[in-house]
Amino acid sequence: MIRSRARTWLLLVFALAAIVMLALHEAGQLQPVENVFQSVLGPIERAVSGLFNGIGDLFGAVRDLRDLRARNAQLETQNQDLLTEIASLRNLQDENQILRQLLNFTQENPQYQYQTAAVIGRDPSPYLKFITLNAGSAQGLRPGMPVVTAGAVLVGRVDQVSLRSAKVQLLNDPSSAVNVRLQTSGVTGLVAGQQDGSLLMQFISLDAEIAPDDIALTSGLGGNLPRGLVVGQVDAVEKRDVDLFQTARLRAATDYDRLAVVLVITNFEPVEIDVTPTPTPEPTATPTP
Predict the structure, then answer these.
(1) Cβ distance 204 to 248 under 8 Å?
(2) Fold annotation for 114-265
(3) Any residues with CB less than 8 A from the CB of 272 and at least 6 apart, and which?
(4) Alpha-carbon span 64 to 55, nearest angstrom
(5) Domain boundaries, the chain
(6) How sure is the predictor about 29, in pLDDT bands with cuts at 50, 70 and 90?
(7) Which end of the chain is more exposed for a tag (fewer CB within 10 A), N or C?
(8) List of E strands, the chain
């Protein structure tokens, strides 16, 4: 009972005090006190407000950084996809261009029959220059057949054949040799592959005049290759009076390391040259009278 009355009186006192404080505030009597409290509590309020604003900004920055990283990862993935697509389109464009050039060659040389083949392998040895094709005896390939690429460029000859694949010896293989004729001067020689993968034209007469950038074509001598296929272009000539012949270094007409699609001439028949010496007839004995 006593506690209830005390609580009631306490509420009445608080209510009365609040009414008095409100009246004084409206009358402006509390302005000096309020100014004192504002001067004391203002900096604290601003500091607390700045702290909470900073915490909010920090959480916002962390969220923005996370979103930025996710967006960056998404853009990197899209960039890689675009680069892959561009590379694929470029490869298709290059292959289409090569196929068009090969088609032009077949149309300009209807006397031959061809088998298109893709390059599926290369010899790992730095001293052997061979490529592997995805066509073999099942497609009519045989050893010795000429292999060409765009622009009527000879790249080599079929060396070994299996059922579904074939190895081709490139012109720059050290054991390769091809008879050629220079297009402008008509000078003949033998182009042999070198250990460094270059082409060297040998056995050129010392009195022959060789024009710079002259084009070397297969001469047909020996009967093992068609005439007129492009081998390379004269890059440098070495001539010394002490030598029996002069030599010419050639620039290959194509980049052998970038071959992707080739044509195999399947109906070329090499001419077998009989090198058997004619036997010398034995002298007949004349009877002595």
Answers:
(1) yes
(2) Thrombin, subunit H (2.40.10)
(3) 223
(4) 14
(5) 7-108, 114-265
(6) low
(7) C
(8) 114-122, 130-133, 146-149, 153-161, 166-170, 177-182, 188-193, 199-205, 215-218, 230-238, 245-252, 261-265
